[in-house]
Design a protein that fits this description.
The structure is a single chain. This protein folds into two domains: 5-70, Orthogonal Bundle (Chemotaxis Receptor Methyltransferase Cher, domain 1); 81-286, Rossmann fold (3-Layer(aba) Sandwich), CATH 3.40.50.150. Helices cover 44% and strands 17% of the residues. The termini are far apart. It is α/β, with parallel strands linked by helices. GO terms for molecular function: S-adenosylmethionine-dependent methyltransferase activity.
Length: 289
Amino acid sequence: MEVSDISYRIIADLLRARTGQQLSESRRWRIGTALSGVFRDRGISNLDQLVCMLAEHNADDLAQDVVEALLNNETYFYRDRIMFELLSQRVLPDLAKKRADTKRLSIWSAGCSTGQEALSLAMLFADNPSLWKGWKIDILGTDISEKAIRLARRGIYSQFEVQRGLGVAQMLTHFSETSEGWVPSPDLRDMIVFKPANILEPIASIKRFDLVLCRNVLLYFDSPLRTRAFNRIAGAMHNDGWLMLGSGETTVGHSDRFLSVEGHQGLFVPRLGAKNQSELGQLNRRSGS
């Protein structure tokens, strides 16, 4: 589909205004494909017609449909297993020691999409009952896509979805097959609350988080908005907590509120929790780097 410069700019500005994401020139090609469902459902024949409709009064529902269609909700269970192994082997044992007195952990899965990341986290705890017996684990899954959150709350996954990232044993242990699809076990769902939220806005939680996962969420943000997002995350965390980004993401150049953990790409700690380099060195050694 041919995308005129004016239409591209209007759509890109709409996406940025509502989500903070940039629709770069390199992603311009996917506009027509991403919006094909909106065109079909609304009886729209081309992008220029869509842009004209967006300019009309009371076009908010249409604008939201456009934004939802452009968001990348790609996800699957245990996406990037190396990162989940790092959580299981390094991060969670460290938090188990730090929170041994209270036996409570609060975790934020930011940009959780349709729920697979939050459920993967819950399975890490369920698969190690001897370590986590008697603990209260609270996982908050948020996403700017209200459609994604509705699906996450519904918690029904197709055969294809449940097999993406899960072995047969895990699938049969933690999910049950129903006439509608595969549903997670109650012990997993009881750990998780899903809410729509924009990472650029204050998180509506009275808790501070021990662990935040914000993986592949900020890839399409410009540097000022990444800084703003990292400030929001830092303000919502305990000073001795952990931040995990995607393996190719970093806080470097965007925030001075985090320090990278040597040898573990994508893993960070709040600067206030490692007041000097000697303390960070101890942390790195404890993390096995």
